[in-house]
Amino acid sequence: MNDGGKGGDGTGRAAPSKRKDARRNKETLLDAAATVFVRSGVEAPVRDIAAEAGVGMGTIYRHFPTRADLIIAVYRHQVEACAEAGPALLASSASPHAALGQWINLFVDFLVTKHGLAAVLQSDSSGFDTLHAYFLDRLVPVCTQLLDAAAEAGEIRSGVEAYQLMRGVGNLCIGAGSDAHYDPRRLVELLIAGLRRQPD
């Protein structure tokens, strides 16, 4: 009976570790998929994602049976990464304006991936609407926090609304996936630089 008790304890300790490993492996897959989507678009071959992640294709299909499943998971994963990055950048950057610029770069990466989502989900507009609401709920408050911190530090003009800024950045990213000569980052950098408060 004592042996059984030890075995039970061992299993209890091992289960959380296995769950943590599985979660980490899934996040590795999502990071790899996001990288490939940004580089090659959401129609990139699954074998490219498998190569990026260093796993077999079967591993990807086991976690994500369809491409839509994978894209939705990447979408949510990137939203969470963007949301968590805001406070971390504020804490580690030289200034709130620098943190804002770094966060916007992450947001641009997300948008380049996101633009392929509508085509994949066009047959399920309710599903896309749900994801879009999730995106706004998670990211608008983070952008607001960054803007407020930069305004309070006197680095940017006050009164800039997070939703308007994010919408503007999104508009600059349109076409990035279909035109190899167009890189929205330069224009986005100019937009963020333009928020700078002019000396009196």
Automatic annotation (TrEMBL):
GO terms for molecular function: DNA-binding transcription factor activity; transcription cis-regulatory region binding. Residues 23-82 form the HTH tetR-type domain. Residues 45-64 bind DNA. Residues 1-11 have a biased composition (Gly residues). Transmembrane segments: none annotated. Keywords: DNA-binding, Transcription, Transcription regulation. The keyword DNA-binding applies. Residues 1-25 are annotated as: Disordered. The keyword DNA-binding applies. This is TetR/AcrR family transcriptional regulator. It comes from Streptomyces botrytidirepellens.
